[in-house]
Amino acid sequence: MKQKTISQPFSLSGIGIHSGEESIITLSPALPGSGITFFKDGRKIPALVDQVKETRRGTSLDGIAVTEHLLSATYGLGIDNLEIKVIGGEIPIMDGSALPFVTALEKAGIVEQEADKNALVIDHPVRIIEEKASLELLPCHGFKVDFMVDFPVIGEERCCFDSRTGDFKQEIAPARTFGYIDEYELLKEQGLAKGASLNNALVLGKDGYVNAPRFPDEPVRHKILDLIGDLILLGRPLQAEVRAVRSGHRLNIELIRRLSGK
Ligand SMILES: [Zn+2]
Predict the structure, then answer these.
(1) Buried b (16+ CB within 10 A) or exposed e, 175-200
(2) What are the pLDDT digits (tens) for 217-250?
(3) CATH number of 2-117
(4) pTM for this predicted structure
């Protein structure tokens, strides 16, 4: 398969979910083999695992927070090379999902390039466990994610996405970030979630969803979205079946570090 980029530059703007402040991102085509690279304040920040600074609330690369929804959109569309100029400290949260990024990238046009993709092919099982959470990679002919979560109020949810038969745009990209009302108050005290609202998150109260979910199992779909957004930090596509149980950004990043030998 050939590498891909976009055919023309475009910009998007919006508030960050944590800072509440406006950011602008400008995405431009990039040369084959160059990968995904952020530019901020004159600095070049490759979208690679060694640039990860924080995984507590989203994945932050050096000076750029909440990169995973934008990166999930690029990975889901099979884009390998891209330059992303960022003005602000956070990628805009948009509607809390990856769909606005997918729509904008498709509108800009996705084009094949001369070079072939250089996938990391998993040929033996790799497993990482941390308390009740685990991630397991198994050999597979394509890319597949099987995710199980267990959250308060929601209970157990499981979802499987197979890139060979599934449609990322329809099944995964629209799933929004989610949070609990109680947690929201705590986050606000810590100076986080200043931009969070019912317009950019699926909110849960004690008895269930406060706003209408887009899928009956939207939270687990969003966990797949986040995982895909983290996997791009490998710097090459992954050919494997990923089995995730209660995993989050920290464990995702630890697995990618291990696979990258970092
Ligand atoms: Zn997320």
Answers:
(1) bbbbbbeeebeebeeeebbebbeeeb
(2) 999 999 999 999 999 999 999 999 999 999 999 9
(3) 3.30.230.20
(4) 0.96
